[in-house]
Amino acid sequence: MQAMDSFKNKVVWITGASSGIGEALVQAFVKEGAILVLSSRNVVELNRVKTKLNLQEQSSLILPLDLANTANKDELTKIVISRFGRIDILINNGGISQRALTLDTSIETDRKIMEVNFFGTIALTKSVLPYMLKQKSGNIIVMSSIAGKFGFYLRSSYSASKHALHGFFESLRMEIYNDNVKVLIVCPGKIKTNISVNALTGDGRKHNRMDQNTDQGISAEECAKQILNGIRSNKEELLIGGKELKAVWVKRFFPNLFSKMIRKQKAE
Fold first, then answer.
1. If DSSP codes are grouped into helix, strand and coil, which group holds residue 94?
2. Of 105, 156, 143, 162, which Cα lies nearest the Cα of 230?
3. CB neighbour burial string for 98-131, b if at least 16 within 10 angstroms, e if fewer
4. Model confidence pLDDT, tens digit, residues 255-267
5. Model confidence at 45: pLDDT above 80
6. In order of start, what are the domains of the chain with their CATH numbers?
């Protein structure tokens, strides 16, 4: 498969576009001359991003989307197709994290995390996929995490949702490979965003606190830059972060050593 040389005039649909990595991706694609579709639940913040980046009406669309309730996914997809004629890149960036012990997390919170991170993501992907298959081209980007590679304190359901994404999208990648539709799974480590602030506690309330580890992470802008490079290079999986990424390598080749190391890590 030929690598993508330019994002100019490509139609890029980004979920979770109102903040963090999503907002940084919007900014990066704007600089490349892409056509942007911005989705999240927070319309006020989406419009802030639009104003901040001076997005033009002819080359952008604000499309509110709640990943916890994707019953209208096909209608939203049809709006994008009607407006721009195609969808070249779908970036499944929207999601929610967790900060609670397994026993302190209600089953309702477990289900909400899975609904947003997994079912919402695959529902939107299944809605967009037929159009990519028809046009014989497309890129599907999935935001996982290094927590999709191994479990961690206070992240049981979050980690489970990310593990599930790997199984689903690795299978999908094989099924659509010959149709020139590519799948990239992105696994960020510590990225400086509000992911911990917006994370759910056991009873479903916001954590409302910035983790020290998150606060020390690389910038969302650097993360976005690496994602665009990963798409250009036809990467199938991309790890982004600092020294914490070494844990993925240790887990793979030295699982017993990994278990000893990870138990010594700070939970937040």
1. coil
2. 143
3. bbbeeeebeeebbebbbbbbbbbbbbbbebbbeb
4. 999 999 998 887 6
5. yes
6. 11-262 (3.40.50.720)
- How big is the chain, counted in residues? 268
Is residue 158 part of the annotated active site? The answer reads: yes
**Angle CA 196–199–200, to nearest 5:** 150
Task: Please name every residue paired with 14 in a beta bridge, in sequence order, or none if there are none.
Answer: 38, 91
DSSP character string of 213-254: HHHTSEEHHHHHHHHHHHHHTT-SEEEESSGGGHHHHHHHH-
Q: pTM for this structure?
A: 0.95
- Residues 29, 36: contact at Cβ < 8 Å? yes
- Rounded-to-integer distance, Cα 74 and Cα 126, Å: 9
Burial 201-222, CB ≥16 within 10 A → b, else e? bbeeeebeeebeebeebbebbe
For residues 100 and 202, the answer to whether their CB atoms sit within 8 Å is yes
- Tokens 């999240």 map to which residue? 40
pLDDT of residue 215: 79
Residue 176 CB neighbours (<10 A)? 16
> Given 131, 153, 158, 177, which residue is catalytic?
158
